[in-house]
Amino acid sequence: MSYRPVLTGRALGQFNDFIKDHEEAYEAFMRRLLWLIDAPWDAWLVYPGGDEPEFRESQFGEHGLISFRVSDDAGLLVIFNILWAG
Prior knowledge:
Structural class: alpha+beta
Strand order of the largest sheet: 1-5-4-3-2
Distance between the termini: 32 Å
Number of strands: 5
Number of helices: 2
CATH class: Alpha Beta
Shape: globular
Oligomer: single chain
Largest sheet: 5 strands, mixed
CATH architecture: 2-Layer Sandwich
Number of domains: 1
Helix content: 25-40%
CATH topology: YaeB-like fold
């Protein structure tokens, strides 16, 4: 099953910054996103205790981190934070 990615307001603003100013970050983000839509459960748990396993994080590029929630019922990958420290 492939999940449909959705960006929340905050993540959408962060994504728009990549498009304008950080081509390297944008390309790394898109490569990781294409991987995640088919394998979101292979990402790290945001809350290590396992109480909310649908919240995940994954690294992209050398300096990026994407945080998201997996919704199996809706088939969505809801991205709520994108961090690029490069």
